[in-house]
Design goal:
homotrimer; about 650 residues; Rossmann fold; Immunoglobulin-like; 26 strands; about 30% helix; binds zinc ion; hydrolase (chains A, B, C); EC 3.2.1.23 (chains A, B, C); beta-galactosidase activity (chains A, B, C); Beta_galactosidase_C (chains A, B, C)
């Protein structure tokens, strides 16, 4: 199903009906609205103006549109900030962050909790049973603009409380953090500060607990809104729109309080911002890197326990990346189908019409500011027609499971130990390899059941909790575990049995030394799949297991016991490809070697093939299959769908 | 005429007479002094020490030197700052900027207005009728060190007042800024903050109004001094020394209150700092880029309504650029003649003698700290002799007019939309092409009359006010309008008729989509002048006009109706050259193709040819002309002057 | 002799005896401890817990280990900071720096002086006569994390007092700083601020005095502790562990109050951080640049007036550089011998066992966190055995003396005048050339006697005080003086006789102009040793001396009178090599041309040869010598020692 984001408060009332009719005519079913409308609803404290929203919802109902109503808490009005200036967040540099953009509130502020309670309860009471309203979006893009972590006095108080609840006694905290180091022993929770502007680097356990706390605060704030909504909106779903390449927040935890996950998909903006070589940024500037959207579809499908929406889909140039190219013709359609192939229940575009004013005036929509349709309009028209003709079977499980961990991102952010070590880069490089191999991936948090997967990939899991170890133990496929896994305890200490810590139960080896390498320093390795040059990270392993791959100085780089493998280095793309291909073959997953711009995705018996490249490619379909969309010859930026049984 | 900057307060009194005699002997007529002398004049509050300056001026008078007296407000003394700490400016990061350098005051400070009134009135009363004093310089280099924009409480108050005066009602402001976006609706002007340290980017209309306000505050402060001076200094001119490559301030507006403009010309420092490829920085390290000084001469001649001085001319290495090379021998003479050829009424060098102490001790002067003459001394001696032998006809109009707009710089600073889009880079690349074509350029603000110019160039003019449109309509030459022109209303909104907005009256086309491109992503275009590869910026145009140049995907890049042309992309230097050459030929301007280091400038019937390059070049003079300086063979870093009729 | 750093407070008491026994078994004699143990000693204010340290020291005594006891002032406990929050330092940005790392105190804080007096006196009283305690280390790495320079109110007060003591009258200060420039004349010392956050750059004399003050404050604080210790610890030495490539602090001055110097040697970390081309960083990533440790050995031997220790020697990967590679096998042994060859009295490793917790958990030690020995353990075992078999003669004087000046580093930090001008880079490039020439270097502060050295090198000495001039006058070898020497007075002014100022007594020439060059702008020079291309810096010299080397435009680059030479440019490595080789030959020092990775060091009749390279090299030993370690064929990362008479 398709939807769109709409801001009735931006347009004259006489245009609403016409817009809603045009949405329906285009084939849209959902409309999201309201998420930045606080000052339109409450222009002065307590004087609620419901009228316009009443009329919008009635009109939507009349036109057959289902409304997702956003709570407006991402943008507290100026009067609220002036009344409670302490709700403004404080950045890592200790500077109060001002009103004038959005997300100008601290998750720990008691005053903001009260104001949130007031506006959300009012909203839910008034519209929770409105027939047009099918669900709610809580707030908008939690954490955007670096807002998960705040350094204000309210956060300091809340952090101290969080620590007290976690540790019980200050001695337990001292032991966990190793505060005996550098004389940091605390006598009371009230002595603990927020870890910023320290003279030397802060204690890593202190930082990790603070990052956990900050993520927890967002979750608690979301939960606070969810509870208010549930009370007043029977039968309505509640979701939130997560972001791409964003790790400050643990989406798996937060989504436990949601009905499903949603995310905002801007493939071109992400491609310009992600750490790719410049030539790849240029190569994919108009299509987005072929795995960027797919990765997040899989991630948020996991986060949503199988259910997800794309709440904001890029329909044209955006305004917030360093460079904002125009999508190649066909890409909006392709991205939509990629989302659907991955199981998206709804793809909702951002936005119905480009606003001619304010911060996002350069972000394109379905319609231009002069009310004429944009390119994307016609591409979506086509998707809507195609969709109505194509019955979608439910998506099954993927052959590959990937374990993704927000906490891992925090651990390595705190302690990279090598400037090039980036958690998301490692995860994405594993993910990309499977896409090139034509293999679908399901993404799980640590501890999720992994049974039934032919191949389980753990790019890196520094902290291995009991449930994660159990899940890995019970996996019945091949399990490949990446470097630095098991290298820390939950307290951010080196485990007593040294790395990989608890994983030694599965992989009897010890990592006795690690090193990070400067750019240009490559180690050569050799094995059954050829020779590979490695950089970034290397580990020394003591074990009785014979290495499957060795550095030329003799050190092992890949070890295996039974179905468990351990990779003791940052893998080069070439090694990763050879290794994953080999394991996939062993697991009977029938990997392919797809052309550079081609990607596949199955949904039940349907196979979707997407051509992100600039040349025609042949669909890797068995002879004689029936094509439901397109045909064997896939033009650039186009797709084909066929049925395999 | 020639002059020099002198700091009598830096030297023992017994040296003054000798210095003044030496200046006259060198052929100098003007001496600027006093602009940093506040604490020498008023070492403690209210205790004025006029004696030394009395003696300096009498001596100057005796020696036949005409004095330009600076008001000393760029450097309030420490006692003043201690008495009124609130005059210290606050930077964008919210930090109070301290005493210890210069320009440590806020233009909005009421206390500083009072202190300014006091010292300037005293100065004007005492010296406004002194026979040696021929004019005043207000303050020094307004805006230097990022001081146009201040974020202090006084500025906040003043900004609120400025908005109230502009908009009248807060509803008008809300509508203009589109504050309905992100719930930023204000109820009162007292709610509006300065746009900094916001969590997400601030509203662009808010930013633009703040930048306008900040520029206005400087103008008002200058006007405040001008009024004080006019009252007490009959017949004396008033000017200000503007800076190079500086856009925070609108010089056209400020100069309306001056008798003429002046600027400070440091070709080597600017060349090291401007955004050139490193190889060009090296190429021009000892000469300055050949168009840097010329561009500013033309700009400030326009700002000065035809009249300008060079108030500070670089005579040797400076101290403030990342690299400070020595000018090639001959360059001080060449720069001087370039200024004169552009119509400079006076070229005044900075400074008479290198100070052995304090911040600028590494900045060379005419004399070394040991009182010996520097290289520049002898070059200027030669210029003075040459000048006295060469009668200078008045300068006429140039064949090309270029429209320059400070507001355009602000718009693109606020909303580059592509990291490489820089207003000055675009303007300078147009300007440089005409210099290479041997064509003089006059520079105007938008709205100035453009009649009589064979070619009018508008590199980019995002906000097209009524008077600018009228002036363009009444131009009688060819008019080339660059990308993003007409793309914003005065309110910083997309115009209702979409870009190029009001320009559609002249150019019936619509820009329906724009994009910025990452470095390395080039689009190919083809047309009558060849094939060109473009990056940075592209626009999609809907129009019935046939394109003169097309991208290889068919999109038009250059459109024309009658004498108006629209360029829908960031031009490559190659295209710009071909296009401007072709238009100049059509306009009958007889463009040439000058060698890389050669530049021409006419002043009446005189043609000046400047050789910035390291090789001898031949002067492009018709056969048989009379050479007034040099001859047909121009050595490196030298010049020739001949008469054409 | 060998030692190790140990943190008993990090380990269970039952392990101490076992650890001490293992240290002795390994051949270690010294153990440093206690320097971060304040909160272990005084967990709450006034409640001292001596018991554990009593037992540690008694145990050390019993096991035959000599203890170096650190004063714990680098890490004041949280309760102390909470009681006196004003001890926290303030950074250049004006931000209070928080508790949570280490070195969170201001050297000017009266409260911290009191607390220091209390804890150091208690410690000295209790342990100053303990038989295990042979000496004290004051604090730890003074200045680490940018803590020499603080911008707090206490420092402002102290700086004003320091200025008053230095100048006596404010007029003297005004004259010295040239405050007449930019109206900065002060009426009272109480008007002077700390030089930061100024609108334009601060006055250089102001900055230099502040940098001197800041260095003096550290020295005074150290002296304060030394006095407390001397009173209570008869016969115990007092030292401090200095850092590498660190210039904020003048180590020569501070060490006047110590018995000898110590320093912390981390060759790999320094190599990753120093300004080397990336390819050299890669080349030496696992060995350290071959001259990094040697340079500091020579520097701190000079600082220690002939006596120094390595207090912390890197034994494996560290955690604080951008990249932290593993040392090549053999390097820990090689580094140890390099230190000993340079005269180190003790080499003490950091640390006995890798801590599994807190900030330095990724820094390797002799033992892993699981109590197993690391690679370094076995290398040191070998060194200990070799040491006991090799009688070490005293080290003699080197043939080359190098003059090193912290103040020079400050002058050029304040006024680089060219972005690439870095004092340490210049010094290190001179030093490296002599290492390649097989010539030892002694390092002195300006003013030290230089008699007996065949060659004296002054890379750059901007401020030449009377005693420095005298020492150079009395040198009896060749003296090469580098660019910008003599270019400033003690007041940070250009000397009246212009540069090289007082050095004109030795070198009758005047530097009449200087310039810095952008990268890529090279000047060609030619002379007896060939042609060389130069960048970065060039000077113009007026003199009757004929140049030994000329730029191709005729300007001289190298001048000589008698045994004094002046170099008027930033030297290229090629020129430096040719020049130093030639001078060394003239001086009869018998320079060699060593292979790239080979280095020599004499200690009495012993010659040590170190192979930092990856290939076997031949020892440059005369035929027939006796090898005491290794032999003529030196494997990679190995050494040889032979006797020459
Ligand atoms: Zn907060
Ligand atoms: Zn202000
Ligand atoms: Zn301080």
């Amino acid at each position: 199903m398709l939807g769109v984001c709409y801001y009735p408060e931006h347009w004259p009332e006489e245009r609403w009906e016409e817009d809603f009719k045009a949405m329906r005519a285009l084939g849209l079913r959902y409309v999201r609205l309201g998420e930045f409308a606080w000052s339109a609803l409450e222009p002065t404290p307590g004087a609620l103006r419901w009228g316009w929203l009443d009329r919008v919802l009635d009109l939507a109902q009349k036109e057959g549109l289902a409304v997702v109503l956003g709570t407006p808490t991402a943008t507290p009005p100026k009067w609220l900030v002036d009344r409670y200036p302490e709700i403004l967040p404080v950045d890592r540099e200790g500077r109060r962050r001002n009103f004038g953009g959005r997300r100008h509130y601290c998750f720990s502020s008691p005053a903001y909790r009260e104001e949130t309670a007031r506006i959300v309860a009012l909203l839910a009471e008034r519209y929770g049973r409105h027939p047009a309203v099918v669900g709610f979006q809580v707030d908008n893009e939690f954490g955007c603009h670096g807002t998960v972590r705040c350094y204000c006095p309210n956060c300091r108080e809340a952090f101290r409380g969080w620590l007290r609840a976690k540790y019980g006694t200050i001695d337990a905290l001292n032991a966990a953090w190793g505060t005996v180091f550098w004389s940091q022993t605390y006598r009371d929770f009230g002595e603990v500060e927020l870890p910023h502007l320290t003279v030397a680097e802060a204690n890593p356990s202190h930082l990790l607990d603070y990052y956990r706390f900050a993520s927890d605060q967002v979750r608690a704030y979301n939960r606070f809104q969810v509870d208010l909504l549930r009370d007043n909106a029977p039968g309505r779903f509640i979701t939130h729109n997560f972001m791409g390449f964003f790790t400050d927040l643990d989406p798996f935890a937060l989504a436990e309080d949601l009905d499903f996950a949603a995310w905002d998909s801007y493939p071109l903006g992400f491609t310009d911002l992600m750490p790719l070589p410049q030539e790849e940024k240029v190569q994919w500037a108009r299509t987005g890197h072929p795995d960027v959207a797919a990765f997040h579809h899989d991630l948020y499908r996991g986060v949503g326990r199988g259910r997800f929406w794309v709440m904001e889909q890029q329909p044209g140039p955006v305004n917030w990346a360093p460079h904002n190219p125009s999508p190649a013709p066909g890409m909006v359609r392709l991205w939509t189908w990629e989302a659907i192939a991955h199981g998206a229940e709804v793809v909702s575009y951002f936005r119905w019409r480009q606003a001619p004013f304010a911060q996002e005036q350069m972000q394109a929509g379905f319609n231009r500011p002069d009310f004429q349709p944009e390119v994307a309009f016609f591409e979506v028209q086509r998707v809507a027609e195609e969709l109505s003709a194509l019955p979608l079977p439910p998506a099954g499980c993927a052959p590959v499971a990937l374990v993704y961990d927000s906490e891992a991102a925090w651990v390595f952010e705190i302690q990279p130990q090598g400037a090039e070590w980036k958690y998301l880069t490692l995860v994405f490089s594993f993910y990309s390899v499977f896409r090139r191999l034509g293999l679908e991936v399901d993404i799980f948090k640590p501890g999720a059941e992994l049974g039934g997967y032919g191949l389980v990939v753990v790019p890196s899991l520094p902290i291995v909790r009991k449930e994660a170890l159990e899940a890995l133990s019970q996996a019945d496929g091949l399990v490949i575990v990446g470097p630095r896994s098991g290298s820390k305890t939950e307290k951010f200490q080196i485990p007593p049995e040294i790395p990989p810590g608890a994983l030694q139960a599965l992989l009897p080896l010890k990592v006795v030394r690690v090193e990070s390498l400067p750019p240009g320093l490559l180690e050569e390795a050799e094995g059954p799949w050829g020779r590979f040059a490695f950089g970034v990270w290397r580990e020394w392993v003591e074990t009785d297991l014979p290495p499957l791959l060795r550095f030329t100085d003799g050190g092992g780089i890949l070890f295996r016991r039974g179905r468990y493998l351990y990779l003791a280095a940052w893998p080069s793309p070439e090694l990763l490809f050879a290794l994953c291909q080999s394991l996939a073959e062993e697991a009977g997953l029938h990997p392919r070697f797809l052309p550079e711009g081609l990607r596949l995705r199955r949904r039940g018996p349907l196979v979707f093939a997407f051509n992100y490249g600039p040349e025609v490619v042949e669909a890797p379909a068995p002879p004689g299959v029936r094509f439901l969309l397109g045909d064997r010859r896939i033009p650039p930026h186009d797709l084909a769908v066929w049925e395999e049984t």
